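Annex B. Sample input.
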Amino acid sequence: MQLVTKKKIGKVAQATSSSRVIAEMFGKRHSHVIEAVENLVAENSVAKTFFIESTYKNRGKAYKQYTMTRDGYTLLAMGFTGTRALEFKIQFIQAFNLMETLIADHKLAREVTKQGYKGASVALRELHGNAVKMYHFSNEADMRNRIVIGMSSRD
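Annex B, continued. Sample output.
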């Protein structure tokens, strides 16, 4: 299992982890981690925004899990103790920092490609005149994004 992954929450890409990863890394039963998350959410309504309930499948059966933001992890992990917990907390902080850097770098690359859109649009219009349709501009933008950052301009 990957410690930290990128997931869209709403319209924003964020560094996240799951309750199953936490259980495995801390050597806890997943049901105990679920219980700890639900206790945090029950104690404070703000905590609810840090955890997203979902399911995973194992042997054809669906089970509950939580995806958590950095704040959710921090809140949850603060309650864990011991040498293993401390080591994991440090690794987790480093992994979140790396993922956030990668997300920020991606956003910067998108901004750089956006700066070239107008110039590319003018060049298309000069080269092909009125034969250029509006979708040509979006296709050009999409192609530039796929080349520069490896994904569609819509992602």
